[in-house]
Amino acid sequence: MKIICIGHNYVQHIKELNAAFPEEPVVFFKPDTAVLPSKTPFYLPEFSNEIHYEVEVLVKISKHGKHIDSQFAHRYYEEIGLGIDFTARDLQRKFAEKGLPWEKCKAFDGSAVIGDFLPKSQFESINDLSFRLEKNGAIVQQSSTSDMLFKIDEIIAHLSTYFTLKQGDIIFTGTPSGVGKIEVNDRLEGFLENKPMFSVNIK
Q: Among 91, 93, 130, 137, which residue's CB has the most CB atoms within a 10 Å radius?
């Protein structure tokens, strides 16, 4: 299983990071060791003082594909989910200043929360899915896939140009604005179309 992540895919999030607008999807990976086991707390790592939550819509690839045209990309996934891309923001800033890779701030153990998946057939439009993240019962991130710079089918087509997509691969499609720091005893809950998809306790 590959975990492929897209960065800088929502306008307001790009602005809050003071980042440049990408001309094509920004791509990075997480290893399978980044997956936080279900119903397991997330323990704040010692190497960072600023771990941020980033809620993201997830896509699970359902069959092998390479050089997929965007008009056929919908044939390569059947489920949509929700998760969190935990980010060591202090490390990310340092690496960005030096033009260094993101793996240490994005791909560390437990940095990928993968919640439940739902059949895409139950949604009217994949390109207009509402989702949100609540921290301790208060909404901190809220958006819709309609706000994506690069839509899901575009992302799949782009990725398949460079990487063979396999059944079970998961794509994190980017986060909207509202990212923020987590603290011990926080509780994070994600909702897709008002359906609860995950909950994580911070330790």
A: 91
Q: Can you give the pLDDT of all 203 residues of the chain as single tens digits? A: 999 999 999 988 888 877 888 999 999 999 999 999 999 999 999 999 999 999 999 999 999 999 999 999 999 999 999 999 999 999 999 998 898 998 999 999 999 999 999 999 999 999 999 999 999 999 999 999 999 999 999 999 999 999 999 999 999 999 999 999 999 999 999 999 999 999 999 99
Global pTM reads 0.96
| Contact indicator for 161, 73 with CB cutoff of 8 Å | no
Radius of gyration of the chain (CA): 16
First to last CA, the chain: 27
Q: How far apart, in Å, are the Cα atoms of 87 and each of 73, 105, 127, 175, 202?
A: 29, 6, 25, 11, 14
Place of tokens 């397991």: 40
Residue for token digits 């998760």? 83
